[in-house]
């Protein structure tokens, strides 16, 4: 299977969005197949394409890769976005795992009942401002470099950028107390591959809406 | 901080157990400091030892590592349990993510209210026997080798054994339809480091009982 990586998922962010971000940031063009019906999904399973019967699925370098983290790690390793040695990789892993925990709250948000939504936004704001953003603010302040790890652009920077923008969609002034992160956000926005991804018409998906939620529930219905 | 790795967690399995398994299988001796009260946890937090205010935390090679996956990835790579190249690593990652999902369901069970527990136990067994175990049975069948990836003992094998034993605690005959996994279980259990870990007196922790659940709820205020 030569050629571009091919992504199979719904036409929305979900668990595939960090993968789109990372490929785009690495300057890698990719194709997408969108799941719109339960039948399409059942067919993928029946054809044996999904190792654990789940998407995301990324066909890359002859493999049908599943499991978001496995896919992200592979891409990061392949495109030199994973640090120069084991210890840098350890830092990158710690940072992306922390960010993934924050992003999980955002991922689940559209599926929470209407009366819980305000409380959930408060939780996201609280965690972002008290647990996660202070860590990265401090890291950037302490070494004074442009990137989180090893003075070199890595998966951790891409993931943090995605998280900042995602939280800002819910809590617009969330970076008010984080001057280093504000500078970081501007710098990342201006990196050519990321700048391109942030422009209209890129593979970046919009925030989940009611239609997206409906499609998720329909496609993955038991 | 030279010397043995030092693990910070409660005295139960939780998210630290997979790390104990991996270190033990790699033949690495480690120390443990148990969090027994809310105050113990607060002290770790106030001392700035927990990057995201959470445990597991493992002091290793001069780092205070957090985030279960990051810690396991580091240990796996350090002790040559992570395959020989990027593609083998991808397979190990995919397999480990699968067993992580399965064990995640089991870990959660003791914390569930009695009315959902039975339903979730049934779901665990269904997932184990129709989604997860068939994948590993097939992998072993397809290549006919002793280990899951690259004909060499790896993190994926250790994690699968842990998942098998943990699921068997839920349903002792759960491997009845999986002859290769039965043979795998015997084979991997007899690896000297693992055999030692499976013996009484090792640092392996017992299944989570009501007393542990109460302690965890108190320490983490959940």
Description:
The complex is a heterodimer of chains A (222) and B (222). Helix content of chain A is 55%, strand content 7%. Chain A has helices at 17-25, 38-46, 68-78, 86-108, 117-143, 155-170, 179-189, 192-197, 210-219, and strands at 6-9, 31-34, 57-60, 63-66. In chain A, helix 1 (17-25) runs parallel beside helix 3 and helix 6 crosses helix 7. With 222 residues, chain B is of the alpha+beta class. Chain B has two domains: 6-79 and 198-211, Glutaredoxin, CATH 3.40.30; 86-191, Up-down Bundle (Glutathione S-transferase Yfyf (Class Pi), Chain A, domain 2). Chain B has helices at 17-25, 38-46, 68-78, 86-108, 114-143, 155-170, 179-189, 192-197, 210-220; strands spanning 6-9, 31-34, 57-60, 63-66. In chain B, strand 3 and strand 4 form a beta hairpin. The interface between A and B is medium-sized, with 26 and 28 residues.
Short description:
Chain A is built from nine helices and four strands.
Topology overview:
The complex is a heterodimer of chains A (222) and B (222).
Chain A (H helix, E strand, L loop, with lengths): L5 E4 L7 H9 L5 E4 L3 H9 L10 E4 L2 E4 L1 H11 L7 H23 L8 H27 L11 H16 L8 H11 L2 H6 L12 H10 L3
Parallel strand pairs in A: 1-2
Antiparallel strand pairs in A: 1-3, 3-4
Helix pairs in contact in A: 1-3, 1-6, 4-5, 4-6, 5-7, 6-7
Chain B lengths: L5 E4 L7 H9 L5 E4 L3 H9 L10 E4 L2 E4 L1 H11 L7 H23 L5 H30 L11 H16 L8 H11 L2 H6 L12 H11 L2
Parallel strand pairs in B: 1-2
Antiparallel strand pairs in B: 1-3, 3-4
Helix pairs in contact in B: 1-3, 1-6, 4-5, 4-6, 6-7
